[in-house]
Write a structure and sequence with these properties.
The protein has 2 helices and 36 strands. By secondary structure, the protein is mainly beta.
């Protein structure tokens, strides 16, 4: 097998620090090295205060600097934002399953920050949640994350501090399989994002401040998420399955908390695929690998090449419907774990989700289009295997109106299925909130790190997500993967549609304090987060 790794435009810098807050986890660390029921290594022992113990010598030492910088989004649009280096996304980290990484984060930002390794079943002290697994990395300080990467797959990393993820602070983490079963010629990592930071004075913090005022300053009638997302149109009206037919979603005329920036509150965005309301934020740009649709990245291959595409949704408030014009896709993995191969025309990715697909390249120039689901606008990149003019930025591949695959249609590959077992414990997580008050919560409570859901080591745990709101939520579990029902795929992030209940099972094989939260940045910051904790 010949595999070519394509790295997009990115750069990194670095420095070094100490891990503080190890005492937070002393009672929840694991020293086991055995395999779990799902075929995954158990949690590793917590390290010393410098984050360097608990693993052998690092196979890779990596330096990252988080700093303010100017980013080029293409088409003569540059913005001031925060990033890892000077490019967007940040530089890809690539390792092999079983490797130990030592990643030193130097914080040159004006705020404290951290790094969360999304989807990795790593030791708890390295999970990167300030106030829970570590102390935040203060401005001018640095911190070394040292951990083994147990499982091959497509992962990524980002802060777990405020709304920072909705800036430029994210990058792929690709873990290769030393016994790779797939045959392909080239590989394309595709990171999807919605962008607001630095545009006309906007910042994610200002967006959160505006949303937090809710829509209740006038009449609250019809604004409650429990009965439909009020001013967002509610229900399924006015939206066909392509996301193209409804009138353009518009921001409300409410003034932004930053008087130099426009309102970013979204109105009228609906999606049948998402079960109603599509999102809260009217983003001015949607990006593929940091580029706008008017100035897209071009991936070059030869006709007949077999290409592995790794999709990552790094967005803050946007699900993307993705298709490659003129091609069908064969889905091979989701959230890093293999599935029984399935062909589809298009994919739906919630925030935090990842999918790997295989395509056989045709001859010509083809748009890879990522429609902001329910928001009508789109990001894109190009696949070029021959001559000819590129399609216009407004072009929409017919595949977007074809079969759209969602995670519930997939089955886990035989080697990663959970063993058959009834749950020892069921934890019900009731998702609640309203746009009127912007009071997103789990079980009626906003996030409190002192409150823990009870779990015992070794249990099969069922998480029952009960969505009583009129909004969809991509729910993410740290430190574990769960199985979707009826032999469904292994995942760490799953969409829960409004008015629906999703039951997922996982094995409590990685002790520590682990977040469960909505991966909508603004919902999480408003309070839709909780913690489960257990000892070895």
């Amino acid at each position: 097998m010949s595999v070519t790794h394509i790295h997009s435009r990115r750069a990194v810098l670095g420095a070094g620090i100490s891990l503080a807050g190890g005492g937070l986890l002393a009672a929840c660390s694991s020293g086991r090295d055995d395999e779990s029921a799902g075929g995954h290594p158990a949690g590793h022992r917590s390290g010393s205060d410098d984050g360097s113990a608990g693993e052998g010598p690092a196979d890779q030492k990596i330096a990252l600097t988080a700093a303010a910088t100017r980013l080029d989004l293409g088409a003569d649009r540059t913005v001031r934002s925060w990033a890892y280096g000077d490019d967007l996304p940040g530089r890809e980290i690539r390792a092999t399953a079983g490797d130990t990484l030592a990643v030193t984060l130097a914080n040159h930002l004006p705020q404290a920050t951290s790094l969360h390794w999304h989807g990795i079943a790593l030791r708890n002290a390295m999970d990167g949640v300030p106030g829970l697994t570590q102390r935040a990395v203060k401005p001018g300080a640095s911190f070394t994350y040292r951990f083994a990467v147990p499982d091959p797959g497509t992962y990524w990393f980002h802060p777990h501090s405020g709304t920072q993820q909705d800036r430029g602070l994210y990058a792929p983490l690709i873990v290769e399989d030393p016994k790779e079963p797939l045959a392909y010629d080239k590989e394309w990592v595709v990171v999807l994002d919605d962008w607001v930071d630095g545009v006309d004075g906007s910042t994610p913090d200002a967006v959160l401040a505006e949303l937090s005022k809710g829509m209740g300053s006038g009449s609250d009638e019809g604004m409650d998420h429990g009965g439909g997302h009020g001013g967002h149109g509610g229900g399924h009206g006015g939206h066909d399955m392509s996301g193209m037919a409804a009138p353009a979603a518009k921001a409300t005329p409410r003034r932004s908390p930053d008087p130099t920036g426009p309102s970013r509150m979204l109105m009228g965005a609906t999606s049948e695929l998402l079960g109603g309301d599509a999102g809260d934020v009217a983003y001015p740009y949607y990006l593929v690998n940091g580029r706008s649709a008017e100035d897209p990245q071009t991936f070059r291959a030869k006709p007949g090449d077999r290409i592995r595409i790794r999709f990552i949704n790094a967005g803050g408030d946007t699900a993307f419907r993705v298709a490659l014009g003129g091609h069908s896709m064969t889905v091979t993995h989701t959230d890093g774990f293999p599935v029984t191969h399935a062909r589809t025309d298009a994919l739906l990715l919630g925030m935090g989700e990842r999918y790997d697909v295989l395509v056989t390249a045709g001859d010509g120039v083809f748009p890879l289009t990522a429609v902001a689901e329910g928001k009508r606008r789109a990001a894109r990149a190009l696949l070029r295997t021959g001559g000819g003019a590129a399609p216009a930025p407004s072009a929409r591949p017919k595949e977007l109106d074809g079969t759209v695959l969602t995670a519930g249609r997939l089955k886990a590959a035989e080697g990663v299925r959970l063993t058959r077992r009834e749950p020892d414990r069921t934890l019900t997580l009731r998702l609640s909130g309203s746009m009127a008050a912007y009071d997103w919560a789990i079980n009626g409570k906003r996030y409190d790190p002192a409150e823990r859901l009870p779990v015992r080591s070794g249990e099969r745990v069922r998480l029952s997500f009960v969505n009583g709101t009129g909004m969809w939520h991509p729910m993410h579990l740290h430190g574990h993967t769960f199985a979707l029902p009826r032999g469904g795929p292994r995942k760490d992030t799953a969409i829960v549609r409004p008015g629906e209940t999703l039951d997922v099972d996982f094995d409590a094989d990685n002790p520590g304090l682990w977040m469960i939260h909505c991966h909508n940045v603004y919902h999480a910051e408003a309070g839709m987060m909780t913690v489960l904790g257990y000892r070895d």
